[in-house]
Sequence to fold (235 residues):
Amino acid sequence: MPGGYYLVEALDDHGRRCEVNLVLREDRPAAAARYDYLAEAVATVDRIMAGQTRRLGDRPDGTPFITVGRSTGIGYRSLGHKTGATFATYWFPEEPFEHDTFRADHELWPVLDELSRLTGEPGYRAFTDAMIDALAGPGFDASSGLLHFSEECDFDVRRAGPHSKRMASDQPRFKPINSGPGSDMHLERFWQRLPRQTHRWLRATYYGLVTNPATMDFNRFCMYGFDDRPRPPSA
Fold:
């Protein structure tokens, strides 16, 4: 950009806005610098892997998982259920930053796959494969078959089980992911590595969420722990 005064505005996925004032001084033309974005991306991911890798169950022989803290955001009020002519509302407080990371960072999986493709280094993709393979048992609810990743549930690497994403409720719930870069819930990767578990999980999604098969009415979330063997739609 030419020299001058600039106001840079940024808006993130949570609606937060940031402004930065810049002053650029241009004394003389300069050749555009070549920047190695791939090398910077590799270095960044390597730093994340070095600092945020935790072994499954906190066991010395546990499968390494990349972990992340809970997403933080400002507090907000959400519309709840209707009683007569009145709607109940719920306050969701601002959630504190987690210094001790233990939630499996599945949003980084596509990045690892892409780094292997771009760099020719298979280790990144192999890291993702190992994490998915390790979820064969603890990554799925034993009773229903539902995956322990969802919009309202994280996989707790420390305890090898589900952990609520929300401070408002300690009980993890299943709701298909509808935000962030991993909104497809990595279906292709799960079908590749764990087809039997994935098949059961997708059937259980129907059993747990659909309330009326004829009209496909559905709940926005369901609880883990129901028995999927009778195969009834959600009551």
Remarks:
- Residues 37-52 form the longest helix (16 residues).
- The first strand starts at residue 4 and ends at 11.
- The radius of gyration is 22 Å.
